[in-house]
Amino acid sequence: MITVTINGREIRTEPGKTVIEVALENGIYIPHFCWHPALSVSGNCRMCLVEVEKLPKQVIACSTYCTDGMVVHVDSEKAVQAREAVMEFILINHPLDCPICDEAGDCKLQEYAYRFSRGESRFDEEKNHKRKRVELGPHVVFDGERCISCSRCIRFCSEIIKDPQLTFVERGDRVTIETFPGETLDNPYSMNVIDLCPVGALTSKEFRFKARVWDMSQTGTICPGCARGCNIVAWARKNEILRLTPRENPHVNQYWMCDRGRLESFQHVHADERLDGAMLRKNGSLEKDSWDTVYSTAAKELMKFKGSEVAFIGSAWATIEDNFLLVKFARDILSSTLIDFLPHTIEGDEDDFLIRADKTPNTSGALLVGAGSPGHEAKERIVDGIARGQVKALVVMDDDVAADPSFAAVLDKLEFLLVIASNTTATVGSAHVVFSSATWFEKLGAVVTFDRHLQLLRPAVVTAGNKRWMGGIGQSRLDRFGTTYDRWGQYIEHDARPSWQILTGIAQSIGAKWAYTHPEDVFEAAAAEVKELNGITYEKIGRRGVRLDQPVDEPAFIYDDIHP
Ligand code: SF4
Ligand code: SF4
């Protein structure tokens, strides 16, 4: 161990770390544009200049290694002046685009202009003009005038994706970013450069000019796009999700997410096909009725079937809480052991970085609570039972069984089909009773990644149903998980409830003494019953989750300063 002194604080640290690493790890902020913990050190922005005693000039903290006895001043007059000079230099040619720039309010340069610059410009000359609105690829638009040549985007492509699609061209103040001849910025992770870009030089084609960042709520949740379970932030305005960005988690996705997850995984939340409320089939078509009426009709119908006459299909797109209650409903109320969920794997559609072939986010969690069977053999038995007339009733939760040809061929043999679904599907088209369920982005619950990392998803938008159990505006039990959903309560569009709540409603109509009023109540029951979950609480899962098999070391320092 060595001892360094930064801003008068003596710090013991291992040798081999740079000044910026040791400072940030110990809560001492050194401004920086080009440095990023996941990328190589390029040292080209010069923003992290600090004063080191016995050295003749200021040095950049990102490439200066700590040595025993080193004394560093981050906020001395010389260091402050040096950073002001760097800011003045960077701002000389930076356009005054802030009023129309997507990055405004979320921009490192804008923030540093307030915190670390002289606050005025001495530059009267015409600014340098460069190309604007350049489409680098299908999702990323480049503005040459805003670029501060930090090279983060270039290093991301060559070092993380190992596909060097971007490079600098020209020299001096004409330097700019370009794709290699004949190439576009087109890879499954291309949009991460937008998050990495410390200014508004790289923006998202899909999100450009949609909203100002200060108008959006931010909810830390989990991507439902595949079994990786990338940690994300869902940005919403007026109860509508407008974009997803990655949230750092060293155990799951580091700082990144894939473009498909980012763009596609929330589209169904605001789709025209969203279902609304509880429905009964009358004269061949589904008609909306009160939740209580539909709960009691469903209860009455289901009670006609017992044991092997009734089967259940859970979902790897649903939470542990949803699947746990489905298993409990089947087992304790209708004495049925016929339960399974459908796999959704696209063989070959995976890589050795993040993307998984299993396109569901909670296969491990559904298996953990007993909603699946080895090799999905129960699913075959259910299909077979329906075909032979033994299985007469089916409850389907958050999946479209009719999309599976084996189910599609037998569904019309059922005497009773109850469907819990968020959007219209072919299965809904055959159902006798339908309950509208909350989507992934409208519920709180636990899920498990393919490598058994247990995480919490949080509601980013509000439905009439989840508002009920979330509690009153601003006083929800969710507040401690950092959800900001309640800003948009007045814009509720959908009368949907989380699946665990729907199952509880039906169970109570049957007469079961289920008293679950919050997903945390359900998780507590699951944790008491399922060995792997024993002793785990929402509080313990926290923001970065817990590994089920063996504890993982939480790093001493987590860099959550991706942007800004
Ligand atoms: S486009 Fe952004 S990330 Fe790339 S070099 Fe310019 S400022 Fe840096
Ligand atoms: S890798 Fe999977 S979990 Fe991660 S962003 Fe992509 S689809 Fe979502």
Structure characterization notes:
A hairpin with a 6-residue loop joins strand 8 (166-169) and strand 9. The protein starts with a strand and ends in a 17-residue tail after the last strand. The protein is elongated. Helix 2 (77-92) packs across helix 3 (108-116). It has helices at 19-25, 77-92, 108-116, 152-160, 192-196, 259-264, 291-302, 320-333, 363-368, 377-387, 405-408, 426-430, 464-470, 499-510, 519-529, 538-541; strands at 2-6, 9-13, 49-52, 59-60, 71-73, 134-135, 140-142, 166-169, 176-179, 202-204, 217-222, 231-237, 240-246, 278-282, 285-289, 310-313, 339-340, 393-397, 416-421, 433-436, 445-448, 453-457, 546-547. The longest helix has 16 residues, at 77-92. The chain is α+β, with helices and mostly antiparallel strands and 564 residues long. One iron/sulfur cluster (SF4) binds next to helix 6.
Q: In which order are the strands of the major sheet placed?
A: 15-14-20-19-18-16-17
In the predicted model, the low-confidence regions spanning at least 5 consecutive residues are 471-485
Helicity level: 10-25%
> What is the radius of gyration?
27 Å
Write down the overall geometry: elongated
- Alpha-beta classification: alpha+beta
The number of strands is 23
Strand content: 15-25%
Number of helices: 16
Present as ligands are:
iron/sulfur cluster
Largest sheet: 7 strands, mixed
Q: Give the overall pLDDT as a whole number.
A: 93
Distance between the termini: 32 Å
